[in-house]
C-alpha cells in the first residue's frame, strides 16, 4: 500500500548558504523538509469526466466516461475502484447520485435525467472516497444546461444585463511603495465570461498615472509604481457601456515584489525587489511543478534586488509554482508559470465520407501518435452528436483540464485556447491568466504548520466501502470495539463483518456489489444493547465555485423544438432498448464454501422444518427444552469425541442473531438448499464455530420475520452498465423499416483502445435526422499523454430535413 502514498522527492538543485552583510547564516533546510513531508503525506487523485453532450433535455440519458489520474503526474492511477457521480442543482441539492466501478483507472456509467426536472444550470461532479479527505474544490465539476421542454414553466429566452466582478492582482501578491509592479486585471460576469474594457489609474489629485485595456477573455496586465502617501483608484469603461470605479489594492510601506520575465533561449528571469529596510537580507526561492520539486536556492539581495534564472527545460509540464521566502522563513511572494505540455498524444481521426444519407454506415479511423510521431496505445472515449444552437461544441477537454483548469482557482473561459494556439498574443494571455488565478492544490500554511493527518475516508482498493456508526441503544454513545455485521440477501448473498473503532465507526468492505439491494446490518451480534446506522457514501461538502446563471439567449426555438421531438420519439419507440443493462461476471460463490450441501428436492419433502432437520441433516441436532426447540450442530474432534456447538444460522445470508431457533417456524417448501460449514470459520476478526445457511428459491427470506433490532434499508451498490442503443441498418429491410430513428446522439463508445500500432476503427449508423454531427475523441495513454480530437460530418435526409 505504501507505494501508493509515498514518493521520494529528488532534489534537482542543491542548497547552498550565503552570508549576508550582517554575517548571518540563514538555514532554509527546514522549508524543504516540510515541503517534502507534505508531499509524502498522501497521494492525491484527480478525476476527469468525458460527457457525451454539452446540454441535455429532461428525459434524456447522460453518458459519461471517468478517467482517474495521479494529481501530480497526470498519469492513470489505478487506486480507487469506485467513483461517485452526482448531478447537483444551483443550491447543491443532489438530483441524481450513482456509483461507478473503476478498472485500470477508468470507468463509465449513465444517468437518466428525470422528466420532472426543472430547466436550469446544473453541476455534474465526480470524486472518489479518498478524495473526500481533501477540499471539495478538487472534485471534478462541469456545468450543464438542462431544459425541460415538456414543462409548463416559462423559460426566459432573453438574458438579463450581466454584472461584472472586477479584481486586481499584484504580481507576487502585494504592492510595495516605491517599487514598480505588474498588476493583473480581470473583469468577468457571473458565468465567468470576460468583458472588454478600457481603464486608467488616477491618484487623489485625479492625475492619470497608468492606463490599460483588456487583452483576452476580460484579462490584462499593466505596470505601476505606487508612491508613499498616495491613494489610487481605477476608472473602467466596460463593453456594456457602464463605468466602474474601483479601489486598487493598497500598497505596503515595506515588503517584497516578485517579477517574472520570459527571456530568450528558453530562460525566465526571477527578480525580487525589496524595500530599503529589507535590503541585504537573503531570500529563499522554491520552485515546484505540481508539488514535484524543481529548484530550491538561497538568493542574495543586494541594493534592494535579487535575481534568479529559471531554465524552462527543467520545469515540468503544466503549472509551476514560484515561491519566495524571507529571511524569517515566511512566504512573501508567489507566482504561477505555465509551460505547455511537451508530452502530447496526437489523435488523428477521420470519417470515410464527409456526407452521408440517413441510415448509412459511418466508419471512423483513429490513429494515435506521441510527440515523436511514434504509435501510442491509448484508452479513449468517443461521442458523436448533432450540433445546433442547443448542442453547441464543448470547450473543456481532457488536456486543458489535466494540465490547466484542475490546478488553479476560478473559472477559465475557453481553456482550449491556451493549447490550440501559439504566438506572442497567446503567450501574453497565458501569462495574464497565471497572474489572475491562484494555485489551489495546497496552502503554504498547511506546509509550514503541518497537522497530523487523520484520514476519515479510506481508498476503495477493491470495491465500495459501506460506512456505518455503532452506538449504544440506551444512551446513544458510540459503541467501540464491538463486532458488526452486514448482509446482502439473495441467491448469491454477501456477508460482511467489521469491528467498530473507539468512535463507533465501522467499515464493511464489499466486492462485486452491483445494483440496488435490501441490506441488513446489526451491531453486537447476539448482544441486543447496540444499534447501527448506515451512512450515505456521498460527499456532504461542496466546492466554492458558483453555479452560472441560467440563460437561453442564444438558443433557437427551432433547435429546442427539434431536440424535444427527438427525445420524445426515442423514449416512446425505443424505451425498452434504452434500458438494457449488462451485468459483469462476478464471483457468485458464498463467503464460505460449505462442507456439505443438502438439496431438499433430493429428499422426501416434510411439512415442518423440524422434521427436515431431524430426518436427514446429520450435522444438526434438534433438542427440545422447556417445550421449545433448540438447534445445535456437532462434529467430532481428532480423538473422536463429539463436540456440540451453536452455529451461525442464516437465511439467504441474513443472520438470525436474535433467535436462531425461529427457523423452525419457516416453511421448508420455500427452502431450496441447506448449506453447512461444519468447522470453525474465520471471517475478518469474527470467529464462527460453524455455519448453517437456509437458501430459498427466491433468494429472499420472504415471509420471514427479520431481527427487529437490525437496520434494514434499500442501498445502491455500484451501478450496472446501461448498454448504448444504436440501430443497425446492414440490409435493405432494416433500412426500409418504418420504425422512426430520431437519435441526435449517434454514437457513444466509452471504451476505445488503440492497438500497438496506435490504430483503431469504429462504426455506427446515421439516424433519420439531417444536420451536422460532431465527433469528439478524448483519451489518455499509460504514460499520461492526454489528447482530444474533434471533427464533423453531415447527414442529409431529403425526406426529413431539420435546420
Characterization of the model:
- This protein is mainly beta and 803 residues long.
- The chain has a domain at 596-716: Ferric Hydroxamate Uptake Protein, Chain A, domain 1, CATH 2.170.130.
- It has ten helices and 49 strands.
- The strands form 14 sheets. The protein has a five-stranded mixed sheet. It has a five-stranded mixed sheet with strand order 24-49-48-26-46.
- The two termini are 56 Å apart.
Q: Main beta sheet, described?
A: 5 strands, mixed
Which CATH class of the domain at 596-716?
Answer: Mainly Beta
How many helices? The count is 10
Strand content: 35-45%
Please tell me the overall pLDDT.
Answer: 88
Weakly predicted, low-confidence segments: 1-24
Present the secondary structure layout.
Blueprint: H1 2-5, H2 29-41, E1 45-51, E2 55-57, E3 61-70, E4 82-88, E5 94-101, E6 106-112, E7 120-127, E8 140-147, E9 164-170, E10 181-189, E11 197-203, E12 208-213, E13 219-224, E14 232-238, E15 243-247, E16 256-263, E17 267-274, E18 283-289, E19 292-299, E20 305-311, E21 318-325, E22 331-339, E23 345-351, E24 355-357, E25 361-370, E26 378-387, H3 398-405, H4 417-420, H5 424-436, H6 444-448, E27 465-472, E28 483-488, E29 494-499, E30 505-509, E31 516-523, E32 530-534, H7 557-573, H8 575-578, E33 581-582, E34 596-599, H9 609-616, E35 620-625, E36 628-636, E37 642-645, E38 648-651, E39 654-655, E40 671-677, E41 681-683, E42 686-688, E43 691-696, E44 711-716, E45 721-722, H10 732-735, E46 745-753, E47 759-765, E48 771-781, E49 786-796
Parallel strand pairs: 2-8, 24-49, 38-43
Antiparallel strand pairs: 1-3, 3-6, 4-5, 4-7, 7-8, 9-10, 10-13, 11-12, 11-14, 14-15, 16-17, 17-20, 18-19, 18-21, 21-22, 23-25, 25-47, 26-46, 26-48, 27-30, 27-32, 28-29, 28-31, 31-44, 33-45, 34-40, 35-36, 36-37, 38-39, 40-43, 41-42, 48-49
